[in-house]
Amino acid sequence: MESAADSVAKDGIGCTSQLEFGLNSAAQTMCRELLEALLTSDAAKCSEYERTPNERHGGIHEKKVATLFGPVGPIPRTYYHGKDSKGGSTGHYPWDEQMGLVGRHTPAVISEVMRLAAIHGYEEAAQEFENAHGFRISADTIRDIVIDGAASVQKFNLTCGQAEEKQREKLAYVLGDGTGISMFRKHLAGVKGKDGKEAKTREVKLAAFFAGSMKKGKPWRNKDSTTYIATTQRWEEYSKMARREFDRRFPMTPETTIFLSDGGAWLKSVHRNHFPFSIMILDIYHALEHLKEIMLLLGYKEKTDEWMECFRKWKRMFKEGRVRAVVKEAEEKSKGGSHASEVDKKLQYFRDNFDRMKYDEYILNGWFIGSGVVESACKCVVQQRLDRSGMHWSVRGAEALLPIRTLYKSGRLDELHNWRVRDLKQVAFDAA
Quick one: 224 and 340 in the same domain? Predict the structure, then answer.
């Protein structure tokens, strides 16, 4: 028999690119044909299925099935129907259930679609799927798969097992923040923006979780330890989600837990109701931005020498744990000024958070005092996928995609796939 190498030597192969694409296409075709032969075999059609006394044979129906190698079939499947305990009609295809089909798609296709949808807009995802697998699944179908799969993803998040933890973590962080995404107008009815007018966006509440340590005297985020949750729902549901993820990540309560936020009222409620054991730290960068607003009211002109001198001084005092002294100085500077009452209102922000601004202690302990991780997550987890130019979302659409996106950014999509197929039976194919 002539070897492939001998054939190439005799006939030539053209350019290597042609060879690779040709071999890939041939392999795709071969795999599709093999899979079709296996799936249409008698053993794969659940011929061994034992129907219940209430079920009747409803005939054999055919349908095409999308696999990673392309559409296969039509595949014959036996239909059974009957009555449930309440007298209602029931019907199912045991073969579809055994194979874990979602509509006309195999679990592998569903997993690939979800991965692509987590990364790309639906049109881009459709194109990427076609580039990789040689056939097209429409953008609308991908959107439907994501939305229809929301219930199973939610169940996964509610029931999935705890993360493997060899030992109790010494230090864990919970960081919370929010960012807006554009919504269809009808999904913003009654929602007010910060200015009190009708909102143009809806807030996505996000939380980041990671294990921390200290390296060379500085706080350190442990590699590959960050996971996320996100939702457009109210803080009550968000807080339940956050606590579930914390308990999953850290089944043994860490020695120390840090709750870092911008001090928003809803985040204080989350901390009070679900993380009372943690140390709440007010993000220093939000505090400094608030300080800049006060400085403007005090008459300082931004980026002047006088401005820089004052800002550096107060920033240093913050880090030294002398927040009360900064507040006192600002109070003194505002006396008799035209904005004294406004300054006093803004200083209340610091008065309400004195106990969360012990930055000298936090720095000495080697803890993070800035919420950069979650602010970065607002961009890379939420905005890069859900807040692109021209995008608008329904609540249902956003709530379906956000869990998939956060699982992807948390490195857990494979875990979702394994969970979805965990109960599927092994398919015994007829070798004959």
Answer: no
In a shared domain, residues 184 and 278: yes
What HEC string does 269-316 produce?
HHHHHHCCCCEEEECHHHHHHHHHHHHHHCCCCCCCHHHHHHHHHHHH
pLDDT grade for 385, boundaries at 50, 70 and 90: very high
pTM, 2 dp? 0.86
Asked if 29 and 68 count as a contact pair (C-beta separation under 8 A), the reply is: no
The count of domains in the chain is: 2
Residue 243 structural domain: 157-283+370-409
Cβ neighbour number for residue 285 with a 10 Å cutoff: 14
For residue 208, tell me if it sits in a domain. Answer: yes
Q: CB–CB of 409/379 below 8 Å?
A: no
Question: Are 270 and 300 in a shared domain?
Answer: no
- Model pLDDT for residues 156-185, shown as the tens digit of each residue: 998 877 666 668 899 999 999 999 999 888
For residue 248, the 8-state DSSP code is H
DSSP states along 228-243: EEEESS-HHHHHHHHH
For residue 427, the 8-state DSSP code is P
CA distance 175 to 191: 25
